[in-house]
TrEMBL record:
Protein name: Putative Bug-like extracytoplasmic solute binding receptor, TTT family
Pfam families named in the record: TctC
The keyword Signal is annotated on this UniProt entry: yes
Transmembrane segments: none
Keywords for this protein: Receptor, Signal
Keyword Signal: yes
Signal peptide segment: 1-20
Length: 318
């Protein structure tokens, strides 16, 4: 009996030094999208700052494909020791739960949220020379077109995909979805006139809009964004329209809470630093932060909302 009591006390104590020493080697953050996408640029920015605070290098590894499924599955099946995490987004860890029925992991149950980096709008963008200046003119342009018009996204299940489908439904316009392998080629498809529009994450679009290469017709958030104060919301034309993109860090489900809390603390400290705030502001991604539990609640709410929309519009990826 005494030996059992002694072992019960000793075992937790034996685990403590390993956790206390975390991290003892480089950490890998998987990006489930190609270089240049929002998850990539935001993830790399935070990886540098958080890695320095933790005293270890954070290796950023791009694993794009299937709307974030490939990268997500790799982390869901990784050893839950804090050395493999994923920079998820509203597509990979929200929408995918709604449109894929045969995932080999659970978007919610297979992960433990670590910390929310930032949130941003999607933007309804067109090339600069398209002869429209607002949403109503654009809708009329689509309806009057004698040829089929297409829209791009960074992949099936991305927030750009579902945001455009919601716009199609409310505006009652016949746009055809052309998925690309990430936001960067999807943006270029609009600029090169391969497609007519994209309702994409604002960070990859902001420089194109500011430089005059593209026009922003509307943003998808409830309120206008500070970086584009003259650009209306889609809700001003279609009341109730709202989609919000986000980027954040998640770990395999059984990762120890001590590790989650340690990394969460460094994420929040990084987001509070003036240099990170300035760099996020430059790409119109509002610093978020908060607890792991608050991030988990956002994901659950997103999944519920996207499932409802996908069922209503019969949107499926498999």
């Amino acid at each position: 009996m005494k030996r059992s009591i002694f072992m019960a006390i000793l075992l937790p104590l034996a685990c403590t030094p390993a956790l206390a020493a975390y991290p003892e080697r480089p950490i890998t953050w998987v990006i489930p999208s190609p270089p240049g996408d929002g998850s990539d640029s935001i993830g790399r920015l935070l990886a540098d700052k958080v890695g320095r605070a933790l005293g270890q290098t954070i290796v950023v590894q791009n694993k794009p494909g299937a709307g974030g499924v490939i990268g997500s599955e790799s982390v869901a099946n990784a050893k839950p020791d804090g050395y493999a995490m994923i920079v998820g987004n509203a597509g990979s860890h929200g929408i995918n739960a709604a449109i894929y029925s045969k995932l080999r992991y659970d978007v919610v149950k297979s992960f433990k949220p670590v910390g929310l980096f930032c949130t941003t709008a999607n933007v309804l963008a067109v090339r600069q020379d398209l002869p429209v200046s607002n949403v109503k003119e654009f809708v009329a342009y689509i309806k009057n077109s004698k040829t089929s018009l297409n829209y791009s996204s960074g992949g099936i299940g991305s927030s750009a995909h579902l945001s455009a489908e919601l716009f199609k439904s409310l505006a009652d316009v016949p746009l055809v979805h052309i998925p690309y392998r990430g936001a960067t080629p999807a943006v270029q498809a609009v600029l090169s006139d391969e497609v007519v529009t994209m309702v994409g994450n604002l960070p990859p679009w902001l420089s194109q809009i500011k430089s005059g290469k593209a026009k922003a017709l509307a943003v998808t958030t409830k309120e206008r964004v500070p970086e584009l104060p003259d650009v209306p919301t889609l809700a001003e034309t279609y009341p109730g329209f709202e989609t919000v993109a986000w980027f954040g860090l998640l770990a395999p489900a059984d990762t120890p809470n001590e590790i989650i809390e340690r990394v969460n603390k460094q994420i929040n400290e990084a987001l509070a630093s003036p240099d990170i705030q300035e760099r996020l502001k430059a790409v119109s991604c509002a610093p978020a932060g908060g607890t792991s539990e608050e991030f988990a609640e956002r994901i659950r709410n997103d999944v519920s909302r996207w499932k409802k929309l996908a069922q209503e519009k019969n949107i499926k990826a498999d």
